[in-house]
Specification:
homodimer, seven-stranded mixed sheet, flavoprotein (chains A, B), eight-stranded mixed sheet, FAD/NAD(P)-binding domain, Glutaredoxin, 17 helices, 3 domains, D-Amino Acid Oxidase, Chain A, domain 2
Chain lengths: 639, 639
């Protein structure tokens, strides 16, 4: 689905050089390769991660992988699925350990499609991305490394970045020119060091962790669950894996220890003996150890993610933290996704170059929250003996007293670890009262959508084929903004819909200003981008599917997206009495409707009421005008 | 998961020769290869089906494919999904065509996991099976054909069947010996002809059909749905396909026509012109035709499926009918599945050879029903002008008057086409009041399960990892009988569970009589068949997951299947008030419990109450004793 003509650059010129083929580098590369960019992607390892490393895919990341069409290839490896976390502690007045409670991984108050954590070896996940990359004509060049780079927009405005690359055995090297350079090289980033960007240590406490993947024989009943085990002999974390494997994390040393030494280590046998003591009275024997590693880790955050908005960092190069909450790979994915679509918007000509300035604050803020959370996570349960059972109550009961601080903290922790808690702050993309788009139609009081957060999930029925679908998944990750027109009842909103279509079609609107030059030649099989590479339009009608007649009920502009017209007729247990459940979940009146702009990465940009006249399109023009390269909708604005 | 030691036969000796690598042959081959049999599989085509042929996978077949672990490979091809069928007729007093109603493919009164028909080119489906076969060491030998065979159990009791095979170009040939021969060669079966088995024509009416697969440009609104279109210019059936394709079926001639000629044909252009006239006032243009074929077809049924229970027929070799209801591939799958596990039960030593005698009556009865249905299908909607809207009402309302004959016919048609209507009649496998197993615990009055029909679907929570699972999918297609112990509340049923375990462990029980010789050496990672290759035991406890303690609540025999212990704690909207919804759906009291024996192909064999004492195991011994090679449970029966 390359949306750009093949780049006909000189052989040493690229849109981007990506260093590192871990989760961050691969997500960026996969997106940009799909959207038609020319990529030089290198990694200093001879092959993808063979064992160990990250393995946790959080619920929101699974949504993203599905949106990319990669979920089924991941699930084909039969990963472990963690639905619950169990807490084990010394029993009151007894010996050994006892389960003190369990905690849903992703409790039902979070409306997740996949309410579990998926555990799979990082190498298998990398290979799924690599296969997709190769389908789009991009190969990861291995084992190659970066030896130097310069960035000078004045000297070379089109390809300002020059990068020196070398085979790791030193036998060959090349110099390439690019528009961008991305460092997804992990915690010891060469690019970050060359840029002299410091790492701030949020919490001065550092730890040495031992981690072991293997197959065990045990009578410990929760070996297939994620467990936090505290005992008088120390603490351990259990995480189930694919292929009957289990991962054990064990804290070997802490900078709070009297004899703290960041180079303290432990042998495999010592860790196994330690695990035996901690799990007592249960037995544990190793049948096979796949991977064992000891590593010191502190909480660090990169002071900058970029200096010049040409050379960017993401993933572990920007943030390090404990492995306990399984956030590393997920945060790396979202760093890269955030950058990918912004590069596309700028290079495709939709957005001003300054849009790239939103990458660092949006993602650095998430990293700060992650590090705060990482600190709290350990304390949350160690402080209160009844914490686990309270959490258990909180996760199953929606009426739990909200004023209990612990329950609040627990809920926000669940939201955060599931990936649904990411909340981008107001800026030109995420509407707020200080955004240039200001009118009575913006952000209707009833809406339950929050700008800077994910679109709420809802089932709808696709009109053309009666398929029941997840509305938030209907636009694939195509780099386009998603316009969800919640059309309400067509009999009531007919004029407003016509006015919306007229306004969108008008010269100088956000929509017409970025129309495809080849729009007239586009095949009628093009479902997502018939008019513009930067917008995909979905219309949700508050009616039963059989009552919807697309050409009769919708203006031609909306009807052109016939594969994206839906009936809001699927019962939802969260709004059991709603006639139009998807409208109700979004908090949009079915007699009025609304337009929801969703950023290409799935976060809500703005919500606008659907009104007769020009106000709706005016507000949309103002929204997009805040970052578009062209002045939008001047004509209407003056009406 | 080969369950037999590798067969160390002489190179020209096989367990089975399978002729034809269409749906029937591939299903049989795939099952038997997984279970460790040595197979000679030939097909006279140089490669799998390149275009055309069958393409409809019904809801129940998708369950089966999932149970085999093949569903995701099928779905990766992005097949079309048909949720609704639309009916178009001449409008009253008008010209052209108008939609008169729609009919859910698999209405909600059928409790289907996948309430849609999956449409995908047969060749892609064949390749999924072939890939699985190859993983299990079996290759389809192409292009080879069968030239002759003999079957003589007296002359050669171990390998009674001798088969002559030849490369289609005649350059090489071989003669092999086998225990069985299967003809899955399609309607013109060489094997059937050699056996001089006649074909009975159920309905003397024959038809000539034209079928065209291609990509069209049209404004016909239901082109992505299955449609039956009647117009003054003739009738057509529309079926959506993968890759924006559509299939059109058009009836070219009928033996009821005055000028009937079974060799009547039509060119591609004539069919396209005809489609244009029928669809008027909508337009239709062909962008590409992938496949076009004209073929005469009558309703035929093979008089026998086997003569000697060594040479068997299945699939189109046994039954031909119109393509309209999309049943061909599905019926072929189920023919082969039915035969596969019975061969396994006999060759593995569990069942007497006479078990094979149940293949023909079970599957021939389904074929008779299919042919009856095929007749009715066309008539159902042509007879009544309001049929479609009545069907529409029936499919959405569960309270529709049951005494309306049309609605009854409609519901039974839906059940049948979805694959959930297959009902095997009483025999030694499907308990009835005339079965040898007779006691007060057999078939408790409350149960909603019906012997000879599929287990009812239910969600449960797997205890060891808190995963929410589909209980009916938990045992993979491993050739074993599935014992579902609905344990009720453990506090109430503790003694009955202990007695069940004691009885199963007792020498001479159905369970102990067929224990694995290597049971002591089995890995603790063996989840499904630790004790016996012929039984997998699942236990469903009427409790919340967190309240279940497997070693405390279950006897060791049941606890050994720790990956198959479930908590019955998932709400089900069909039994919204039930404390133990899976128990409630099965109609089993949670204070009493029950044992459900499910055949290896998913059909319920017998339901027995869970009682203290020996009655429960006695009944199970009587059930299995009806077809087992050994006398079972004599000791208890005399108590």
């Amino acid at each position: 689905m390359a949306t750009h003509a093949d780049r006909r650059y000189a052989s040493n010129k690229y849109d981007i050089v990506i260093v590192g083929a871990g989760p961050a580098g691969l997500m960026l590369s996969t997106c940009l390769a799909r959207w038609g960019y020319k990529i030089k992607h290198i990694d200093n390892r001879a092959e993808p991660t063979p064992t160990g490393r990250a393995d946790g895919i959080q619920p929101r990341s699974l949504d993203l992988l599905r949106n990319m069409g990669l979920k089924s290839a991941i699930m084909a490896h039969k990963p472990a699925r963690v639905y619950e976390v169990a807490f084990w502690d010394p029993p009151r007045g007894g010996k050994g350990i006892a389960r003190t409670g369990t905690w849903a991984s992703c409790p039902s108050f979070i409306d997740a499609r996949y309410p579990f954590t998926t555990l799979l070896h990082q190498g298998m996940i990398e290979r799924v991305f690599i296969a997709d990359l190769e389908k789009n004509g991009t190969q990861v060049q291995r084992p190659w490394t970066i030896t130097g780079f310069t960035s000078d927009e004045k000297a070379n405005p089109e390809f300002p970045v020059t990068v020196q690359l070398e085979h790791i055995d030193g036998t060959s090297s090349e110099s390439v020119q690019a528009k961008y350079l991305f460092g997804g090289e992990g915690a010891r980033s060469f690019i970050r060091e060359q840029l002299k960007i410091g790492v701030k240590h949020k919490d001065p406490i550092a730890h040495v962790w031992g981690v072991m993947d293997g197959v065990v024989k045990t009578d410990f009943p929760d070996i297939k669950m994620k467990c936090t085990i505290h005992s008088e002999h120390g603490s351990i974390m259990v995480i189930p894996r694919e292929d009957n494997m289990v991962r054990l994390y064990i804290q070997i040393a802490s900078s709070t220890d009297a004899d703290w030494n960041p180079r303290k280590t432990a042998t495999q046998e010592e860790v196994q003996e330690s695990a035996k003591r901690i799990l007592n009275p249960y037995s544990i024997e190793w049948e096979r150890v796949e991977w064992y590693s000891v590593y010191p880790i502190g909480q660090g955050i990169s002071e900058k993610y970029t200096l010049d908005h040409r050379v960017f960092l993401g993933g572990d190069a920007c943030h390090t933290h404990s492995p306990k909450a399984g956030q590393g790979m997920n945060t790396a994915f979202l760093d890269a996704l955030n950058l990918a679509w912004k590069i596309h918007a700028v290079e495709g000509g939709l957005a001003k170059r300054s849009l790239l300035e939103t990458y660092e604050p949006e993602r650095k803020d998430v990293a700060e929250t992650l590090l705060d959370f990482d600190n709290k996570y350990a304390k949350l349960f160690s402080q209160r003996p009844d914490a686990a059972s309270e959490a258990s109550a909180a996760s199953t009961s929606s009426s739990a007293a909200e004023d209990n601080e612990f329950i609040k903290a627990f809920k926000s922790a669940c939201e955060f670890t599931s990936g649904y808690g990411v909340a981008y702050k107001p800026n030109e993309l995420n509407w707020s009262p200080s955004h240039p788009a200001q009118s009575h139609v913006v952000h209707p009081a009833s809406t339950k959508l929050r700008t800077g957060r994910l679109l709420i999930n809802a089932d709808v029925t696709r009109v053309v084929d009666a398929n029941v679908v997840h509305v938030e998944q209907e636009v694939p990750l195509n780099g386009a903004f998603r316009l969800f027109v919640f059309a309400g009842k067509p009999a009531v909103t007919a004029q407003a819909l016509r006015d919306l279509a007229v306004g969108m079609a008008r010269r100088g609107s956000f929509y017409s200003a970025y129309a495809r030059a080849d729009a007239d030649a586009v095949s009628h099989h093009e479902h997502h981008n018939p008019h513009s590479r930067f917008f995909t339009v979905c219309t949700v009608v508050a009616a039963q599917r059989s009552a919807v007649d697309i050409p009769r009920d919708l203006p031609a502009l909306l009807a052109r997206y016939r594969e994206h017209v839906y009936a809001d007729d699927r019962r939802d247990r969260r709004v059991p009495d709603a006639a139009a459940p998807a409208h109700a979940k979004m908090g949009l009146d079915q007699d009025r409707g609304g337009v929801v702009v969703v950023r290409p990465d799935g976060y809500v940009g703005i919500v606008v009421s659907l009104e007769e006249g020009t106000a709706t399109v005016d507000a949309l023009n103002q929204y997009f005008g805040a970052f578009s390269t062209k002045k939008l909708g001047e004509t209407q604005a003056q009406l």
